[in-house]
Amino acid sequence: MAIIAVDMDEVIADALGKHLDSYNNHFGKSITREDLIGTHLRHVVPVEHQDVVEQFIRAEEFFADLPVMKDAQRVLQKLSKEHSIFIASAAMEVPTSFTAKFEWMKIHFPFVSPMNIVFCGDKSILNADYLIDDNARHFPRFRGQGILFDAPHNVKVTGYPRVKSWKEVEAYFARINQGAIVSTR
Question: Is position 150 annotated as part of the catalytic site?
Answer without folding.
Answer: no
